[in-house]
Design brief:
Length: 71
């Protein structure tokens, strides 16, 4: 279930991440960069409640696929 919003909730339920985007000015679109910024922030991508023992929170994602278009 995707409780907690589209990034936080769905990232915990996902087993794979598929990203499809056009190359935009020689890089990814700003919205995709913002998605990654939100995906890899504390509390979503990792837990830093104990700074001496940082724990990953996305270890259940087994596959990442990127499809990039240009034209």
């Amino acid at each position: 279930s995707c409780r907690g919003g589209p990034v936080r909730g769905c990232s915990r339920a996902a087993e794979a991440l598929v990203v499809q985007f056009p190359t935009w000015s020689f890089g990814p679109p700003a919205m995709l960069k913002g998605f990654f910024d939100r995906m890899f922030m504390p509390g979503v991508g990792f837990d830093i409640s104990n700074p001496a023992a940082v724990k990953p929170l996305l270890g259940h994602i087994r596959s990442i696929t990127g499809i990039v278009t240009y034209g």
